Amino acid sequence: MDSVSTPRFTLSPNPSPVSPERRAEVLANPGFGKIFTDHMALIRYTEGQGWHDPVIRAYAPITLDPAAAVLHYAQEIFEGMKAYRTAQGGISLFRPDANARRFRKSAERMAMAQLPEDLFVEAVCQLVKMDRDWVPARPDESLYIRPFMIASEAFLGVKPASEYLFMVIASPVGAYFGEQAVSVWVSEYCRAAPGGTGEAKCGGNYAASLMAQKEAKGHGCAQVLFLDAVERRWIEEMGGMNVFFVLDDGSLVTPPLTGTILRGITRDSILRIARDGGLTVREEPYAIDQMYADAASGRLREVFACGTAAVISPIGRFRGKQGEVVIGDGISIGPVTEKLRTNLIAIQRGNAPDPYGWVHKVI
Ligand SMILES: *Cc1c(COP(=O)(O)O)cnc(C)c1O
Asked: Which protein family is named in the record (predicted)?
């Protein structure tokens, strides 16, 4: 992983890590994203100097100038990925190069400094190595990794910042939703418009989606489905996951990447696995009224959401201003969804061959 251009990480172990007893307690019931490991990675960027002083050090609060640009103009991007304990006892990442590439693209869209991809992967690997004892071992569990970058320059003028802070934190996690199908609210709020930031993984997109999320909860739904901002007709994605539809001929449909949808790595992996498994997959626009009609006629058999956190999560019901529609029995995972889920997880966890070179061994 070392290359001439990669600055050396300073490894500065936490002088008072969590006790093994307390860690065992956390790992027995990790929840999602509430508890963090002993360390974090940190790299600074300064215009004229580039990326400097990469370090792995104790997880701790950071200090920011109150005028830091991120606090005012939201120059912030992030990634989400996981480290898995494999059947062989090692630890692996899944397609970290794809996260590194997407992170660079997000930075480009937000006019932020672009972190070299090898430095991104190196930071993640160094942190995972340092916190290896925090990677849970049970099926459905993993170490969730959150790389992110903020504009740290103290300046209230509106312009791309000249200083950035890249960090990686990690949190042991269990299953995100559980196995049961979730209910989804079809929102009238929009997440992303053509020419906007929908394809960038930035915090601002999430801030804009929270009102819709709140509304969904009020209607008894766990997730939100967003439609396109122009015609309010074409299905785009969920607040933080892409979406797939399984039709009665066994084929899969998912909305195409037109710039307003996040390029999910799980989405891309499913497309590949499905196609190589002989399924017909179409990346094409799917209208919400068509979905309601197909659900009513029985043509639509299964629907699932996908993303790193939840992997593949069946959707059992949609609610919205057009009423409610139930998919399958509304509760269980469908056979096509289940097969894709099983196949993907087997590759991620090293329980199946990896013909695509997706698995990146850390230890
Ligand atoms: C992160 C994210 C996804 C899923 O991407 P993965 O790479 O599969 O984790 C989908 N939609 C949005 C809006 C996201 O932020």
From this structure: Belongs to the class-IV pyridoxal-phosphate-dependent aminotransferase family.
pLDDT digits (tens, 9 = 90+) for 223-270: 999 999 999 999 999 999 999 999 999 999 999 999 999 999 999 999
Beta bridge pairs of residue 154? 68
Which residues, in sequence order, are bridge partners of residue 281?
Answer: 252
Q: Whose CA is nearest to atom 13 of ligand 1?
A: 240
> What pLDDT score does 31 carry?
84
Say if ligand 1 is within 6 A of residue 81 CB: no
In a domain, 358, yes or no: no
Closest among 122, 97, 38 to 356, alpha carbons compared: 97
Least Cα distance to 42 among 162, 154, 163, 149 occurs for 149
* In a shared domain, residues 162 and 196: no
Task: State which residues form the domain around 119.
Answer: 3-173
Closest CA to 268 of 308, 320, 219: 308
Handedness of CA 338, 339, 341, 345 (dihedral sign): positive
CA 123 to chain centre: 18
Query: Ligand 1: which residue has its CA nearest to atom 12?
Result: 240
Give backbone dihedrals phi and psi of 336, rounded to 5 degrees, phi first.
-70, -45
How many domains would you assign to the chain?
Answer: 2
The per-residue pLDDT for range 53-81, each reduced to its tens digit, is 999 999 999 999 999 999 999 999 999 99
214 catalytic residue (yes or no)? no
Q: What is the DSSP string of 46-95?
A: ETTTEEEEEEEEE-------TTBTHHHH--EEE--EEEEE-TTS-EEEES
Closest CA to 302 of 346, 252, 265, 236: 252
Q: Which residues in the chain land under pLDDT 70?
A: 1-7, 176-178
Note the pTM of the prediction, 2 decimals.
0.96
> Among residues 153, 173, 193, which one ends one of the domains?
173
Domain final residue, candidates 147, 173, 199: 173
Whole-angstrom Cα distance, residue 288 to residue 291?
A: 5
Same domain, 226 and 81: no
- CATH number reported for the structural domain that contains residue 235 in this entry: 3.20.10.10
> What pLDDT score was predicted for residue 107?
98
Q: Is the CB of 264 under 6 A from ligand 1?
A: yes
Query: Which helix (H) or strand (E) element contains residue 211?
Result: helix 203-218
